[in-house]
Amino acid sequence: MIRRVLPHGMGRGLLTRRPGTRRGGFSLDWDGKVSEIKKKIKSILPGRSCDLLQDTSHLPPEHSDVVIVGGGVLGLSVAYWLKKLESRRGAIRVLVVERDHTYSQASTGLSVGGICQQFSLPENIQLSLFSASFLRNVNEYLAVVDAPPLDLRFNPSGYLLLASEKDAAAMESDVKVQRQEGAKVSLMSPDQLRNKFPWINTEGVALASYGMEDEGWFDPWCLLQGLRRKVQSLGVLFCQGEVTRFVSSSQRMLTTDDKAVVLKRIHEVHVKMDRSLEYQPVECAIVINAAGAWSAQIAALAGIGEGPPGTLQGTKLPVEPRKRYVYVWHCPQGPGLETPLVADTSGAYFRREGLGSNYLGGRSPTEQEEPDPANLEVDHDFFQDKVWPHLALRVPAFETLKVQSAWAGYYDYNTFDQNGVVGPHPLVVNMYFATGFSGHGLQQAPGVGRAVAEMVLKGRFQTIDLSPFLFTRFYLGEKIQENNII
Amino acid sequence: MAAPWASLRLVAPVWNGRIRGIHRLGGAVAPEGNQKKKRTILQFLTNYFYDVEALRDYLLQREMYKVHEKNRSYTWLEKQHGPYGAGAFFILKQGGAVKFRDKEWIRPDKYGHFSQEFWNFCEVPVEAVDASDCDINYEGLDNLLRLKELQSLSLQRCSHVDDWCLSRLYPLADSLQELSLAGCPRVSERGLACLHHLQNLRRLDISDLPAVSNPGLTQILVEEMLPNCEVVGVDWAEGLKSGPEEQPQDTASPVPA
Lengths: 486, 257
Prior knowledge:
Chain A: It holds the Pfam family DAO. The structure holds 2 protein chains of 2 kinds. By secondary structure, chain A is α/β, with parallel strands linked by helices. Chain A has helices spanning 2-5, 30-44, 73-84, 122-136, 138-141, 168-181, 190-196, 220-233, 295-301, 380-394, 441-458, 472-476, and strands at residues 63-69, 94-98, 114-115, 159-163, 185-188, 207-211, 216-217, 237-254, 260-273, 279-289, 319-330, 341-343, 348-353, 358-363, 402-414, 421-424, 431-435. In chain A, the strands form 3 sheets. Chain A has an 8-stranded mixed beta sheet with strand order 5-6-4-12-13-14-11-15, sandwiched between helices. Chain B contains 9 helices and 9 strands. Chain B has helices spanning 2-8, 41-48, 50-70, 75-94, 141-144, 163-166, 189-192, 215-225, 247-250; strands spanning 14-15, 18-19, 97-100, 105-106, 126-130, 152-154, 178-180, 203-205, 230-232. Chains A and B meet through helix 2 and helix 8 of A and strand 1, strand 2, helix 3, helix 6 and helix 7 of B.
């Protein structure tokens, strides 16, 4: 009879009345009660917000000095250097807003992970050299007490770029610039190539440049997690949400030539939570746009590009997502352990992966063949028609290969000149860019992060001068073309 | 171990926005044994007090600074006494041994003192260097790479020699004939891949490298890469599993040599 009176599902433990309980009241689950009491005490003690009614722990804070939109390797690198270069410990509050905490579409995780210094622009070479020394000493830069050291799995095998007759002169002058900046690159003739790498077919190759030191490939996911761990230990806050609105104020001012210009300053960032309409306005002083392939949307939210075309107000951020495929294949008689990352004259590239005769590579499509960036589906016919013939020509052993898998990722492609955008916007005065690197963002991330942090904290570039990479070049039409893009 | 601590802990171990243990690092981290390590009192204190954390951070930075100090590049000495003298001094200071051509081995004693008479013949090239158990790192190799006629280099059990250091050895390609990397904890098969520049190498010792994932296969690949070199250290049959029908017979029949 007692059983019928008691609420359903109570069970045998309630046949005896415990002191302090009410008959027919709430659950008499003792462990549940203890955990509830513990939760209440935890929320009263210091170190927790006292929100007994509403739990806002998933929302970002209401104030933050710097808001970094985008939690990939570039965003985290900026956060790291901001915290490293601040004048006092805890001087700057930084918030990193990342839309997808699984990084399923982020360019960082899907990257091939190469680093090389063989560029034609001195700034790109310096950025790569700085990043190489950062990666070499990564366990000193990103050391966290009690955490295991990072193993980036760096393969120092170098890059081998091949040039045909018509590109040979350009390659020679590029190598001269690279050596001037301090990169260790050697030039090889076709005979020397055949000597060193007997598996290569040097038909159509006039010259090759081979990076001897500080070049190779590594695990980008490990770098991302290492940065994340270190940056959290330095006090940077993370939030999973999407930036939906900027609240800004404008001011009409006169330039020295008495021309009217409207300067905008962002005051609040509205961060919307995942799968909900809830949003939090974060009051901020500086916004950093490191959103990768989606940077143009963030820039459009801030009003960049709203104006008559041809004016500074009407200049949009020319960064768009471009899909690139990477294929993994197995070839038992393929090139040996010493294989560098080979970039062919046709644009196809490949490198070894692991010890088991697996290789991965791909090729950048031409403008007409550009795939639709709406999703990350892989087109296997692209490999059959556009990649394999070039690979088989260059390395005869690749005539018998078997594709194991493939994936696709986005380049944050700068349609203007395929180089990054770094620094503040001239009109939206507190938005800084760190995006648009078109496939070499990962290898330049530490250097760019430091440059942006110096720009934010000190107002100018100190370590590496990236003034050719400012936004104003889009309006002025000054292209800084990089020739060696893979 | 976690359960008794969990019931006593009233303040959650979330300090300074740092959430431990939730952001797993996947395959890029040290093996699982580390994660299950017993929480020492020091770790407990580090989690709860800023001062302890800052002190431990400072001590860690100091350890790293000490290694850097040891690996400074001796450019002034090189100007005074030439590259061979500077390189030899660097090795001897670190605790290694040096052999000049046609001379005896010079070793420091257990107090770290070594005979200074090599300054008299520092035009003689250095033939062999034994840098076992030294703290040489990437920057310190600057001094080693000046020894252009080095024939034998032993980097056994050097804890700071890693893949980046191996990629730097190519300037010694003309002369280096013997290289030993036995017992270096940070050298992996990725660093061994860039030894293909050293075409004059006749003897390479790659035994006991804990960071190499598959020693038998690595041995085969390195042998293919350096055809004129005798690669010592790993038996290629290591890691091969005998088939199920062979196993019961193994103990009975004699193993062929």
